[in-house]
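does this look right to u?? molybdenum atom version
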Amino acid sequence: MTTENKGKGTSRRSFLTGAAAMGAGAVTATVAKGAGPDPLIAEKQAWAMATGDGVDATPYGLPIRFESDVVRRNVEWLTADTISSINFTPIHALDGTITPQGCAFERHHSGAIELAKEDYRLMINGLVDTPLVFSYADLERFPRVTRTYFCECAANTGMEWAGAQLNGAQFTHGMIHNMEYTGVTLRTLLEEAGLGAAGDLADKWVYVEGADASSNGRSIPMEKALDDVLVAFKANGEALRKEHGYPVRLVVPGWEGNMWVKWLRRIEVTAQAIESREETSKYTDTLANGVSRKWTWVMDAKSVITSPSPQAPITHGHGPLVITGLAWSGRGAITGVDISLDGGKNWQKARLAADGQDKALTRFYLDINWQGEDMLLQSRAHDSTGYVQPSKAQLREVRGLNSIYHNNCIQTWHVYPTGEAENVEVS
Ligand SMILES: Nc1nc2c(c(=O)[nH]1)N[C@H]1C(S)=C(S)[C@@H](COP(=O)(O)O)O[C@H]1N2
Ligand SMILES: [Mo]
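got this back:
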């Protein structure tokens, strides 16, 4: 493709408009350009001269070895050890919207524990009519729902407050995954225990904690608990993986990942918030004047271009280029994504792969004809509340530089004529 398109002098104008039509032609050219017959077509190949693996070679399949670099990765200097740590989803290498569990980021405060279904107990106590304990088998007998949601750690993009830091979408934006969860609504279980004893529900809370050593306790206002929170036992159709809370985790749609308690063991209805470690010294946002915001539960609208990006450079030369990325909002659905090729001076509408779904990832694409020019790639998300993703400067104006969590600013990738890309900041 590289050789054919060089020197054709495609104008910038046609590059901005005629993208879709270019695709098929350019791909044909790649095949036809060789001097002689293509040995991959003309000669017999090893894979066609012997039989392949039998059906039971891998009773539970893994990605083919050619894709072995599409894995979670951590940033070693970020945490002292891997027990209380985080790794990142390889979003630069994925497409569509569903994150396979096997490469979905992990965040543990005291490691991922192994808890068998038989040993699982879930207690509901506090201001309920009848305190109850559910076994795993009990949970399976309540009416079930299946819904897709993103889970984003509040610390996602948190290393980028002071300046461009980590060179890859996996590291800047990979504390996110998006799965189809199956389980029981928290409302169903709370109503089973009975909320009469709680009286007026308007000012009540539920305190949720896990069975791991950290317990990761969090307070959730009753209004949210009765709205769309799930007690989930399946993700993407199969059992939760150990690292995502097997056998049961809480799903708190649109709200910060810390509240999605894994290995869920207890739900207490309380008259006030508990003010646990995870909602006081952590997961609060210190502003420029030293005052900290708390109860910043919702993940605001955000987006990122996943390819091209530093870990996904352009390697195919000039011509048709698919720009793609992800957008999401904890307040509702994504209604549109704008893309800028010039650091935010001009914007054009991306194509959404499907209509935005409530509190779930939306995939977007923009098909362009790239002739090797420098690009400052940015994406900007709009959600169903009318909210528009802010620039880095706009966010800093409101939040200062003391924050770690809730950085949802517009990301910039500088794409060079070589096709390589770098994390940069435009002022
Ligand atoms: N019990 C328990 N639940 C937990 C945690 C934990 O350490 N223990 N980590 C929380 C944090 S900070 C996040 S971001 C999400 C991450 O979920 P994941 O590991 O499935 O990606 O789980 C949350 N739930
Ligand atoms: Mo988190």
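DSSP finds ten helices and 23 strands in the chain. idk if thats expected tbh
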